[in-house]
Amino acid sequence: MADLGASTSPDSPEALDHFDRLPDPVLLIVLNRIGDVKALGRCSVVSRRFHALVPQVDSVVVRVDCVISDDLSGATDKPRGVFSHLARLVLSGLVKPLHALGHILGPQSSSSSSSSSSSSSSSSSYQARHSSSSEVLHHSPAEVLKNFKEIRRLKIELPSGELGIEDGVLLKWNAAFSSTLDSCVILGASSISDKNPNPNSTPVSTTSDEGGSIPESFYNNGALKLRVVWTISSLIAASARHYLLQPIISDHETLESLVLTDADGQGMLTMDREQLQDLRLRPVMPSGSSQRTLVPALNMRLWYAPHLDLPGGVVLTGATLVAIRPSAAEQQQQQQPPGEMVGGFDGYSWVSSAFDEPYRTAAGLLVRRRTYCLEMNSF
């Protein structure tokens, strides 16, 4: 064993930092695996090399951890409604590490300063800037990300879904956007519960109506009205998220995929490369004076089952699946050859694959039932 008290030559193996011997492309792979924007901010103050490499990361995750209270914002009137709350959440609710990230990733004040002094000064200014809570309000996700020049994959995670629902109720949605809504799938249930879990159980629908008809009670006890509220609320939540993403998409032309979700897994908005490019080319149409994208006229397909048993012992009561597409897209699809038309179980593969298990199984079971068609005007 080497003598701990002995001096070490700078050229000896013990003095070498093997991490420094890694080429930049390898370090970028490591940084991309980290992804989290706050962790990347901390990495950027480690050394000059990291400071130069972090802005080249192409896979970034932004987690919004908290909401800034109205007292800190200085607003005289609190915003009302879940969607006003969402706008404040995305534009104002970044935790303090995100607040400093834009400064940390900015140009160094002095090229002659050492790595350690740069790290120390960045940390000091990081703490000083946090002495004023009001400053946090000025750092949106768009500002936090502005120094990342090569982002290809971006995920933004809100702390919770904005649609308040009662305990035991299931409501999930998955929406795809370009410059407007392309599609949306909503899965809801009046109650979700567990029975004796059996991972090997076969999922079955235990309704007595094999034809899948909706019982008369569905229309009379307020169940249909509740599903309409779920549908409209989910569409408004999705269009509000989409509207708030415009600055980020405009500033990052390298983006190839974007996901905006929440920690509860309630709603997910996705955009691929073609959809992102469409938004850049065609301006988003706002819905009046509200901070959300205009929802076009829609065609909807609804499936319902009074009771569904799913793998793992999950039981859905009043399970409802709604598949939504713009009316124009539906009309175009109907002009395709019969084998390619949207209809039947095979034509709804995009619906049944919208969720992870066990809800993917639920969607797959529901699309086999009788389909009910509805229409909705633009709003």
Can you walk through the features of this model?
35% of the residues lie in helices and 20% in strands. By secondary structure, the protein is α+β, with helices and mostly antiparallel strands. It is elongated. It is built from 16 helices and eleven strands. The protein has helices spanning 24-34, 37-43, 48-53, 70-73, 82-92, 96-104, 115-129, 141-145, 217-220, 223-244, 246-251, 273-281, 327-334, 344-347, 349-352, 359-366, and strands at residues 59-63, 153-158, 170-177, 181-189, 191-194, 204-205, 257-262, 267-271, 298-309, 314-326, 372-376. Residues 1-8, 67-138, 204-208 and 338-346 have low confidence and may be disordered. A hairpin with a 4-residue loop joins strand 9 (298-309) and strand 10. Strands 1, 2, 3, 4, 5, 6, 7, 8, 9, 10 and 11 form an eleven-stranded mixed β-sheet that branches. This is F-box protein At5g46170-like. Residues 109-134 have a biased composition (Low complexity). Residues 16-64 form the F-box domain. Residues 107-137 are annotated as: Disordered.
